Amino acid sequence: MSLEDLKHAQRERILFLDQCLTWRGQANRRDVMERFDISMAQAAVDFRTYLSLTGTPPVYDTAEKAYFSTSNHSPLTNAGPEQVFELLDSKTTSLGACIPLPNRVMDHTVVSQLYRAMMAERDIQITYTSMTTGLSDPQWISPVRFHFDGEAIHLRAWSYKHNAHRDYLPIRITKQSEAETRERPSPLPFDTDWHSIVRLWIRPHSSLSDAQARVVRREYGFQEETHITVKTRRALAFYVVRRWRLNENNARLELDMIEELDS
């Protein structure tokens, strides 16, 4: 039996048990019963299933009435920091222990107009406010695709004003009740930056001491390598650099080089 053989609901419970044992170091039936509102009998079945799947079974402590992971515990899957924090934050107050994030609001009318133009392969006229110039001039674009940088949704489109493929934030497009569209006058030029793949070579910042660099390598999982690498589209490399805060003052990491790969 493997995880893939399980039904979705049980697979979610098994993964929860695995993450409890990985990050808390312990788990019992009540953990899964309270999380998923299941019976004691079903929780017992889930534990037996987990024990049959793991190659590093936990040890049951009769006094604590809980399973404890061993020093050689190997998780079935990885978990992101949000999932780990949720497992560890067992004493949340009304304000919580996680900082609130800004909510960048998109207008659904704007997004749906862009989407319809994209699917129909039509140009659309927008009024876009540039944060560089502050200008909000009307312009024609031809939407091609949406992409997400981890914080905001962007629209990649052909700009007739700039005669190039560019990225637009829908939140900076002025809402209009009826957007003017038109047929594309000709096929769009090939988007070389989107279809080109690059590898970013990232290393501990050169200003760090040897001891600090060792900690950074451990923090970001360098293993024995001198660099970690990120493969992405050339058009998205800018967002990787910004999201990872590479080359900023007091940064822990810096971009060493960008390697062009075969598309």
Distance, first to last CA: 39 Å
The backbone outline, from C-alpha atoms, is: extended
Query: What count of domains describes the coordinates?
Result: 3
Strand content: 15-25%
User: Average pLDDT, to the nearest integer?
Assistant: 90
Order of secondary-structure elements:
HEHHEEHHEEEEEHEHEHE
Q: What is Rg? A: 25 Å
Q: Which structural class best describes the helix and strand composition? A: alpha+beta
| Low-confidence residue ranges | none
Characteristic key phrases:
8 helices, Arc Repressor Mutant, subunit A, alpha+beta, three-stranded antiparallel sheet, five-stranded antiparallel sheet, single chain, 3 domains, 24% strand
Characterise this structure.
- Residues 110-173 form the WYL domain.
- Residues 197-252 form the DNA-binding transcriptional repressor CapW C-terminal dimerisation domain.
- Residues 10-78 form the DNA-binding transcriptional repressor CapW winged helix-turn-helix domain.
- This protein is of the alpha+beta class and 263 residues long.
- It has three domains: 8-88, Orthogonal Bundle (Arc Repressor Mutant, subunit A); 108-189; 194-261, no CATH class.
- It has eight helices and eleven strands.
- The protein has a five-stranded antiparallel β-sheet with strand order 7-6-5-4-8.
- Helix 1 packs across helix 3 (40-53) and helix 2 (29-36) crosses helix 3 (40-53).
- The relative contact order is 0.09.
- The model has no long low-confidence stretch (mean pLDDT 90).
